[in-house]
Amino acid sequence: MAYETILYQVQDRILTITLNRPDKLNAFTPTMQHELIDAFDCADRDDNVRAVIVTGAGRAFCAGADLSVGAATFDRDARGTPLRRLPDGSIDYSDPQLRDGGGQVTLRIFKSLKPVIAAVNGPAVGIGATMQLAMDIRIASEDARFGFVFSQRGIVPEAASSWFLPRIVGIAQALEWCFTGRVFSAQEALAGRLVSQVVPAEQLLPTARALATEIAQKTSPVSVALTRQMMWRMLGADDPMEAHRIDSRGIYERGRSADVREGVVSFLEKRAPQFSDTVSEHMPSYFPWWDEREYK
Fold first, then answer.
1. Which residue from 10, 84, 105, 268 could staple onto 92, CB 3.0 to 4.6 Å apart?
2. Could you tell me how far CA 148 lies from the centroid of its own chain?
3. Domain boundaries of the chain, sorted by first residue
4. So what's the pLDDT on residue 291?
């Protein structure tokens, strides 16, 4: 797929996705939505991609939704895409057209089989902030700014951020940022645990690439894919026994794999491991465990 609003570049088993509307501060559009989803689909299918970095072109990460439509930006009916109605005339909330575009992006990132690092190079507000929440690690430039600005636009948090944000930063911090809708600094983001590091602008991508390289060169891709989903999915678990069930399956299945044999032998031989299992062919039979309809 040829992309209009993003760049897709793979080097040294690291995919860099760059939001690429610099003249519009990488404002989010429906085209960008579809292209980001496609990019993560491609990444999951490509065993040469071991980690993903997402960043922005120019001086912004993403300035939020493109507001060039004006007052009708968030009004689907006014934009000519009316929703399906029930016989009594009320809205049919099951209509797929109702789905929030930003949420479709974050849910696709949530399902990623590859670890995702946000390299936040500049302003990131609205969907520019919430799309990062399904990414695993967020590193910010000193020039970065963040804003969950929805209350100042008269709408509500989107992109499933009411699920993600409190889990990352805690409910009190999440509510403060969303209630006020203020734009805040990278240092405040660090203090609030939204990002793990703040670095000078010129060190942002090298820092992100160094972390991605460590993952790509030293770890089992199947182990990382399973670990990513285990950690995220257990955030919604009711009891640690749910984690124990999945841990036990994982230890059994992976314990008899070629990767584990290589991991143990390479350690004993004091050499770097050469993992051969791939995400495309060697995910265990119980995956994905969270939806019985998807059991293999």
1. 84
2. 17
3. 6-215, 219-294
4. 75
